[in-house]
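Translate sequence into structure tokens.
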Amino acid sequence: MIEVRNLTVEFDTRVIQRDLSFSIRRGSIFAIMGGSGCGKSTVLKAMIGLLRPSSGAITVDGEDYWVATEARRASISRRFGVLFQSGALWSSMTVAENVALPLQMFTSLAAAAIAGLVEIKLSFVGLVAAASQMPAELSGGMRKRAALARALALDPEILLFDEPSAGLDPITSKRLDELILELSKGFGATVVIVSHELPSLFGICDDGVFLDADTKTAIAHGSPRALRDTCDHPTVRAFMERGRIDPVRSQGSQS
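Result follows.
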């Protein structure tokens, strides 16, 4: 569904990633992995239209996003739903108003129809009771769920998450993972996740790419579990081994 070909992205003339290539299958939950500073979020920005690449192509169903006209790019972007790391909710709007905003901007639906859709989206993430609250009144997990409801407002085919579990406790993070799985398996959405949170990566992702800060490109492709179990690259192994439990150390800590 999405193909990244020979992509190079820069920030202030500094190369972040170069000659990057990977493909995302329709309906998959795809992980963009790697340590801090390797450029995961920068690549995501290029994929959603916030950062023009220095070279290379990003195609959606065969259509090159950055070669398309501005109007066509806007149309392609309508197929995306994005959950930013901070949630990026408008602080001066209630939860319901935040979710309603994309519907007001990009559809001609009547106010009553928008209100009905907002309730449906909030119901999916378990936040109907918080509809009239302001973002500052919500916990971190509730803000993430409210932002997810807004990302779902236009029924996107492709959902992109930037560090969705960052700052969340394990129980809240697991609940968010369950929502992502439901979106993928139940609604057929294609999901792209930028993360270094191994429990989430192992639990829900079925494909992925591993970015390296030193070589500034991808050094491994495959599901997080497959990379953990079979990849011989020392950087990948060191990263993935954090997800294993040392039985000896675990027993020693209990004695």
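Note: The longest helix spans residues 170-187.
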